[in-house]
Amino acid sequence: MIENLKKELKEEKKIIFGSKQSIKYLKKNKTKKVFISYNCPENIKKEIKELAKLNKIEVIEIKKTKEELAEICKKPFNISTISILK
Known about the structure:
Layout: H1 2-11, E1 15-17, H2 19-27, E2 31-36, H3 42-55, E3 58-61, H4 66-72, E4 81-85
Parallel strand pairs: 2-3
Antiparallel strand pairs: 1-4, 2-4
């Protein structure tokens, strides 16, 4: 699963980090896939899953923490969600 994420991050040019941005773009239906960290807050997970279901967008829960996602993405901040835009 992580290998798929790393591959997609290298290939995709339009990537959004963070739950607020992910929700914003899900509402606009400009997202094609969302990755959610293992320890993302439940209320955020629920909202993202509901929005994604409405627009038939794939949601993948990763068995990594938001701290580990930050490390994978080489960012100095925790990452709860990663969205790949259309």
